[in-house]
Design goal:
Blueprint: E1 4-15, E2 22-33, E3 37-41, H1 48-55, E4 63-67, H2 75-79, E5 82-85, H3 97-107, H4 112-125, H5 141-153, E6 159-163, H6 171-188, E7 191-196, H7 199-202, E8 207-212, E9 215-221
Helix pairs in contact: 3-4, 3-5, 4-5, 5-6
Keywords: ATP-binding, Nucleotide-binding
Protein name: ABC transporter ATP-binding protein
GO molecular function: ATP binding; ATP hydrolysis activity; transmembrane transporter activity
Amino acid sequence: MTEIMVACDDVSRTYGTGPSAVVAVHGTTCTVPAGARIAIAGPSGSGKSTLLHLMAALERPTRGKVTWPGLPVTADTRAHLIGVVFQSPSLVPALNVAENTGLPLVIAGVDRSEVARRVAEALELVDVAELAAKLPEEISGGQAQRVAVARVLARRPRLVLADEPTGQLDHAAGRRLLDALLAATDHVQAALVVTTHDNAVADRLDTHWTMREGRLFTAVVQS
C-alpha cells in the first residue's frame, strides 16, 4: 500500500469572526501519496496557498483534521521531513550561497562535516554548485530561488510543498527552476505539491487539482 505523506479530512480555514469572517478553505478532503507530483492551480485568492500552509502545519485548520500518516509522529521530527519553498527565496544577505543552504541544518545541530556534504549535494542537484561562495546580491533571482530549493533539499525531506515557486521569475528562469525542482525531488524520492496560477507549470506535474473560492474542485491524473 502506498504511504500517505499528508491527508486533509474535511479541512476548513477561516480568518476572523462574525460578519467579517473570510473562509479561505472550505471542507477539503485530499491525500498526497509518497512520490506524488501534484499541481494545485487557481487564481490568486482561491485558497491554494492556505491549503499548502495547512499541509505544512504552518497553519491550523479551523475545522477538520490534517494528519501525516507516512511521517514521524512527533511534530519536531516531522517538521524536518516537510520542506516548504516560498515565492520569495528569503536568503540571508550576509551569508553566501553555501551558508544559506546549510543554515537550517546548522540550527538543527547537524555535524559540520555532514552539513558540508549535504549542502554540496543539494547545490549540485539544482545546478548551482559553482555559486557556493557567492552572496545573494551577486546572483540572479532565478538562481536565488534554486538556492532556496537547495536549502529545502539539504534537509532530506519526504514532502516538498512549493508555493508559487516560479511566480516572481520570467518564463525561462521559471522553466529552469521547475526542471531543477522536479529532478531534485525525484532524486531524493520526495512527494511534491506545487501551487501555481500558470497552466504551463501545472502541465509539468502528473496530478492536477483546481481551487476556486476556497474549494477543491477537481483531481485529475495525467495519463
